[in-house]
Write a structure and sequence with these properties.
alpha+beta, five-stranded mixed beta sheet, 344 residues, Lipocalin, 31% strand
Length: 344
């Protein structure tokens, strides 16, 4: 091949390579646009809800005695648009073994309670504190919920002089306590907790704004969101995992009172169900078909936010129950998210 022929051949290769590159680039652009536009013009159909768990037991709530007036004042001025269906998860259940009582006995004794228990039922037992007989823990070896009580409001000798631990230290001490009790804390939100400070006056807790005069600190634990949906509890503020603690003069945390009810979702076991629209839920709210928290007995309620949530209550439940939450100043309401056709 002569030099001139080689030059022409090289130029042809370069030219066609450039053309091919430009063609591939244009093809990539067209394919990207096509891939982005087609799902918008022809969205895939959402599979029908599986309803695999059958009808779901609805949340029971006390009737609200009066009809309230509602006004929507969200950031957008409207109620949000929710998806048409949601996952419902089974709640984990534990099975007691021959060693359940033995294991709990060892754990509570490690927290300063007696090794000798009083049987209250087949699954509920009580242990008294070795140092303070008026303090006791009632523990359900089936559900692993427990209640700690003492006479600290009437007998302040249980409360050493000085402030209780600050919020972060109190939270850490409770997490350590629960770890020592063998609790599964994998779903506890380490970044979210409620902290309340109190002093004792006339045998009652008086809420304070800071730690300075406090004798008691209350810590509420919360569970992590599931599918980016927050979990709500049957209180205007707080959860079903509550601890009142004071300063401690020993290694163990000084828990004066506690209520611990921890129901966990099994994220591997779920079914899909239809849910109401926000406007349907709002009509339910206006008809008092809701779990309403209105501690100041307001008559005119301004709704500033609405969100989809999961409800976990004090009573045992088989499933994580979806709710639609309406929030205002000193006001909160939970509406059943599931339509009547799939609940009982």
């Amino acid at each position: 091949m002569h030099l001139a022929q080689a030059t022409r051949f090289s130029r042809a290769v370069i030219k066609y390579t450039i053309f091919a590159g430009i063609g591939l680039f244009i093809f990539y652009i067209i394919l990207s646009i096509f891939t982005a536009v087609v799902p918008i013009l022809f969205p895939p159909k959402t599979p029908a809800p599986t309803l695999a768990f059958g009808k779901i037991k609805k949340i029971s709530y006390p009737p609200y005695p009066q009809v309230l007036n509602y006004q929507i004042n969200t950031i957008s001025g409207n109620l949000p648009t929710f998806p048409t269906q949601i996952k419902i998860y089974k709640i984990k259940k534990s099975t007691p073994t021959l060693y359940s009582l033995r294991d709990v006995r060892a754990r509570v004794s490690g927290q300063g309670f007696s090794k000798r228990e009083t049987k209250l039922s087949d699954v509920l037992f009580r242990w008294n504190n070795e140092r303070i007989p008026e303090k006791s823990i009632k523990y359900n070896i089936l559900t692993h919920e427990f209640y700690i009580s003492s006479n600290y409001l009437n007998d302040q000798s249980q409360i050493p002089i000085g402030n209780p631990p600050s919020g972060n230290k109190a939270f850490t001490s409770i997490i350590n306590f629960l770890g020592g009790m063998g609790q599964d804390l994998s779903d506890i939100d380490q970044l979210k907790n409620y902290v309340f400070y109190f002093k004792i006056a006339n045998n009652s807790l008086v809420r304070l704004n800071n730690l300075n005069e406090a004798q008691v600190v209350r810590i509420d634990l919360f569970q992590k969101p599931i599918d980016k949906i927050d979990i709500y509890y049957p209180h205007l503020e707080g959860s079903t995992m509550r601890f009142w603690i004071a300063k401690s003069n020993s290694y163990n945390v000084n828990i004066l009172e506690a209520f611990f009810k921890h129901q966990q979702a099994d994220l591997s076991y779920f079914a899909t169900y239809p849910i109401k629209s926000s406007s349907q839920a709002f009509e339910d709210l206006r008809s008092n078909r809701a779990f309403i928290y209105n501690p100041q007995n307001q008559q005119n309620i301004v709704i500033t936010d609405s969100a989809l949530g999961y409800f976990i209550g004090v009573a045992d439940q088989d499933y994580l129950i979806p709710i639609i939450v309406f929030t205002g100043k000193n006001f909160k309401a939970y509406v059943q998210a599931l339509p009547d056709s799939v609940i009982f």
